[in-house]
Design goal:
This protein is mostly helical. It has a single domain, classed as Fido-like domain (Fic-like fold). It has helices spanning 29-50, 58-69, 97-110, 119-136, 143-157, 169-180, 185-193, and strands at residues 5-6, 84-86, 89-90. The protein is globular.
Length: 196
């Protein structure tokens, strides 16, 4: 689990811990991390193969989160109701998630989900979208995995392919932190290096 600063840091956690209450009753963070990683990996592969890229909006995005995390958390697919930050990055205020999220997906739809764009424009728009959805951070946990699944489906819908395994998770994290500080150059380089 990512280490977040959370308003009411024990919200939805087992008493006197920061371990999220889960459907499996796991109260040890290391064990939960291991099980969560296994389940979301399998669900992610399944979602990549079976999810139709249609009716794409904020509800679609929430559905992806539910697909990945629904075996673990009752709140999977629900927008967070608390404010969070991580490594000095403050994410979207929880009270604005719905409004801003809807606008992001409406804009993406108006752009025909980046289909038919020349590479230069495609990479610019994709980088901006990745950054914006990362800053939205709409869920209590699992934002990065949901974002990567969504971007994979989006990129494949444009006739391109993407392989996040080609870039280390540390490099992607550094790129998103730099983007949050106002420099999206590294994020664009990372994304363009894993898309064919």
């Amino acid at each position: 689990m990512a280490v977040y600063r959370i308003d009411g840091c024990q919200w939805n956690c087992y008493p006197d811990t920061t371990v999220l209450i889960n459907r499996l009753g796991i109260t040890d963070q290391n064990e939960l991390d291991t099980v969560e990683k296994q389940i979301t990996l399998l669900r992610g592969i399944q979602a990549e193969q079976e999810t139709e890229f249609a009716n794409v909006d904020l509800e679609f995005y929430k559905k992806l989160h539910r697909l990945l995390f629904g075996d673990l958390y009752d709140w999977a697919g629900c927008l967070r109701t608390i404010n969070i930050s991580k490594k000095g990055t403050v994410f979207c205020d929880h009270s604005e998630l719905e409004t801003i999220g809807i606008k992001k997906f409406e804009r993406l739809e108006k752009m025909d989900f980046l289909c038919g764009l020349p590479d230069e424009i495609f990479f610019s728009e994709l980088t901006e979208l990745y950054h914006e959805l990362n800053m939205l951070h709409p869920f209590r946990e699992g934002n990065g995995r949901t974002l990567r699944l969504f971007i994979t489906l989006l990129v494949r819908n444009t006739g391109r392919d993407i392989d996040f395994a080609k870039c280390g998770s540390d490099m992607l994290m550094i790129a998103t932190v730099k983007a949050a500080d106002g420099d999206i150059t590294l994020l664009r380089d990372v994304l363009s290096g894993i898309i064919s």
